[in-house]
Amino acid sequence: MVLIVNAFGTPYEHGQQAKDQVLGSISYYGSLFESTCGLDWPSVREEATKYLDTLERLCPEYLEEIRGIAEGAGVTLLDIVALNVRTEINFGLFSQEPKLPIQLDGCTALAIKSGHGPSFLSQNWDWVTRQGQNLIVYTVQRPDTDIPRFTVVTEAGIIGKIGLNESGVGVCLNAIKARGVDHTKWPVHLALRKVLESSSRQSAIDELVSTGLAGSAHLLIADEFGATGLESTAKTVELLPADDQGVVIHSNHLLLNHAGSEESLWLLDSPQRSDRMQQLVTEELSSKQALTASDIFKLFQDEEGYPNGINRDAADDSSAETLFNIIMNLSERTATIAFGRTTNVVERVHVSF
Description:
This protein has 353 residues and is an alpha+beta fold. 32% of the residues lie in helices and 26% in strands.
């Protein structure tokens, strides 16, 4: 069963309750960074130090949370900082000739607010099978603050990822491989955390646009009124509005123009997945005014292009598969997380505020 971590007091609880999973995350990313970036763990820690001043400036409370997780898990502060900047390391500092191909991530995300229907935010999260055992469902409540309570599905040790809050703001993530990092900006996973602490989609977007992101990614940010895609590189931020049907779809390549970006289309199936999802959504909306959560889940079961489709499987030369699906109803402040491939669900976790 997936570990449920409730941090209603100190961040120490995350590290203590999820110690085995935190250690598992460190072990996994240690081997990954060695393979894709040529960095051993001491070098990874050295890279992590470059973010300390930025974290102290932008979000000292996050740095304290990271410190608490480290203490609870019995590891160093830099070990946990490294996990929280894993996107910048893996997708911004990749080697020209990595020991292993970076064929790891294949996430497909969908937001839809059509007609008088609810605002849905959803995605399949695909990653290396081994890391699935280190996923946790993490709920954070900060007493005596105006920060909304939120629940996030994340890798143990990482304080921000995919989820929603009690204000009805949610966020999904698509990895994008574009060279370069900027240590003075929001690390991607801490930007995700910032969204989860926001009271509205617009306030989250305003914060991230004003500061920028340290690396490349797509954040699909939504609330009960609709969704906006936020594409970033280390140099640029561009916004992707919903189409005339209230739909935003994204996979793992840049859809917008980013001046000066050096993107590598590392997943050849990424355009096919986004096109396929668009086709499926268009077909559904041709006969329905609005989609249900059940309708959306069926879209994410699609296996066209198997094993590298929307519902990814670990086969051929890839070790990645769909590890979970999440469907958030932001109008009702609820979510269902289905662990495993969408055609072979092993556990469901329901969230409501």
